[in-house]
Amino acid sequence: MERIIKVGLLGLGTVGSGVLRILEINSEEVTRRAGAKAEIKKILVRDLEKKRSVPVDAKLLTTDPWEVIRDPEIEVIIELIGGTVAARSYVEESLRAKKYVITANKDMMALAGGELLSLAKEAGRNIYYEASVGGGIPLIRPLKHSLGANKIISLMGIINGTTNYILTRMSLEKMDFQTALQEAQEKGFAEQDPSSDLDGKDAAYKLCILAGLAFNSPIRYNDIHVEGIRGIGQRDIFYAEELGFILKLLAIGDELEGGLALRVHPTLIPSTHPLAGVLDENNALYLVGNAVGEVMFYGPGAGSMPTGSSVVADLIDVIRNINHQVENGIMEMDFREKKIVPVEMLSSAFYLRLQAHDQPGVFAGLANAFADEAVSLDRIIQKRSEAGRAEIVLVTHVVEERSFNRALEKIKEFPAIEKINSLFRVIES
Ligand SMILES: NC(=O)c1ccc[n+]([C@@H]2O[C@H](COP(=O)([O-])OP(=O)(O)OC[C@H]3O[C@@H](n4cnc5c(N)ncnc54)[C@H](OP(=O)(O)O)[C@@H]3O)[C@@H](O)[C@H]2O)c1
Asked: In the chain, what percentage of residues exceed pLDDT 90?
């Protein structure tokens, strides 16, 4: 007789609905691959009366988390409520009750993943979190398993769909930032409060998870230098493209001699770079391993069915483990703390757009200030001149951030410089 594994679902929103739908439409494939049938026994929600986007038996719904977590028949808990407080306590309680846990919750895994994985290990269970980064793109499993033979040298990702959608619209449709944000909200690619996405926080949480696995080191949010995309002007996109670059919000991790360099910031990348063609709400992760070389993962970084697909893949793994009586499975407990290199110690090329009085000697003054700090300029262009004001765009060669910042402080003191409009790091190849 076919074995049935009882599952408790916490949350029936965007991702929870995708999970139910996939279990319905791909029931045969999932059961065959898992070796047992998954049956959703109970579902935690906040509002029992809410209209659901998938057909669901009302008898399964409950507002009492403990009814799900403490049900002795339930062997697997899928946490899809989001947030960090209630979700964390439900996950802890599930592990203590010796349930396997699956989650899509990047915030929780970034902030408390280490503690939760230790708790899972003690309980002889594991936490599966493929859906927490990159939605439907397999990233966690490749980093944990398939690329395990490599020392990862660097990773670079577009891992926030909202900001990529906005920057793509600004580039392709020549929209300004506000219009692109509004369109993203109307199409469901940005939340009503988009701060976490726009300020780079969401990407930084995901980078905590990815860099932890890639570099085998526990990563905290504060280890990451974070800048968002607010304040990017249409003109920056336009000038960048004229110079042969595309502007993207990148999450970057490098293992350098002195330690790990981790940052999230808008970055100019050459228009020929593999990440330059990643458009709209799509995500991609590009990484370099010392054995495999360059690898890129690409696909939908969010959404009901794509994210549900990662959750159900985790469920298949869990059921296989239950069937084979594997307790923890493959865990990331070999993490060793590595040093973090502060961003000021890193080197980069820079793009700078500034506004100056249109008068003789401005270029020479800028060139001298940079030369004093050994910053060499690749390009310096006067873009516009109107009403006695000039807009100047310059791109430096690769330089230490500290030297660039010192030169910038001097430039800000020039009476002829009215305003620094924007400043971005540039990746040249
Ligand atoms: N949306 C995506 O594309 C995506 C992609 C990757 C990862 N994720 C992650 O997946 C998780 C779920 O996201 P989502 O977009 O599916 O969220 P969502 O649409 O807001 O759904 C959340 C669900 O959880 C329930 N819920 C929330 N707090 C609860 C509480 N305290 N007690 C009981 N039920 C509660 C809600 O109940 P009601 O329905 O009754 O309100 C709702 O069903 C989050 O961690 C998110 O970061 C989402």
From this structure: 90
